[in-house]
Amino acid sequence: MTERVSEPMAAIPERSVRTWPGWLGLLTSLALMAVSVWLFVLGLPMDVWEDPSPLLLVVSGLLFAASIVLLNGLFVVQPNQAEVVVLFGRYLGSVKTDGWYFVNPLTTKRKISLRVHNFTSPQLKVNDANGNPIEIAAVVVWRVVDTARAVFSVEDYNAFVGVQSETAIRHLASQYPYDDGLNEGEPSLRGSAEEVARALQRELQERLEMAGIEVIEARISHLAYSPEIAGAMLQRQQAAAIIAARQKIVEGAVSMVEMALDMLDQQQKVELSPERKADLVSNLLVVLTSDRAAQPTLPMGR
């Protein structure tokens, strides 16, 4: 007997709820309160020999209670805020325009901020694409764009952003090396900041879409090797920088030697034998590529 896997529930689409102006609800409540007071006065006996009217007193109490209940339907929406309205567990709609409103007083309402939020992740210790342990952290700029998904699709959308952001950062760090190393042009966390930021934003948007959240920007705020390998990696970077500098020096020295030989051949002031040319090339390369000042040696002929 095969087990039947239940399908995930479809996301509740956001919609607008029907509202009335807040002043209308307040006036209605005040009118009921005034009528209840008037009926209460009518229900009281005019003198001590008359009995009070139970019917008028009961109606007065009911109207007064209704006027108090109506006040629960009043609410204010601040700029860049929204109000999610639910009636007996059923989603009626959302109000995203600022103002003073009145809805069914039996509904429950939840405020949702539509302002831009920042999430700064803690420093996470992960392995990059080469397996090197690194420390990484990021800043995520986000906001709620779908209030229905934010309230009903996830338990707590603020905590959901935090968990999914850390998961996306860990996954991103495993896709790129810390540095390009010997493979020049390869995307890396340190050398391809813009590309890495776009990749992080795309992955976060995919993860947070179900919660009705828009990722405005996501960037790495901290990036470093773990302390246990930081010294070794620093030596490797220094060695790579020395090799690159030496390559530039050798390229420049060779071009200068070629230029010197071409000028001697063009001016034809000195004729050099192949042995003398080899000695000249060797001496010039030693002088140009050495990291110390040259010490001239004068030959002593007999």
Automatic annotation (TrEMBL):
Any one biological process term the GO annotation gives: proteolysis
Membrane spanning stretches: 20-43, 55-77
Single GO molecular function: peptidase activity
Keyword annotations of the record: Hydrolase, Membrane, Protease, Transmembrane, Transmembrane helix
Residue ranges constituting the Band domain according to the UniProt record: 72-237
SUPFAM superfamilies named in the record: Band 7/SPFH domain
This protein's name: Regulator of protease activity HflC (Stomatin/prohibitin superfamily)
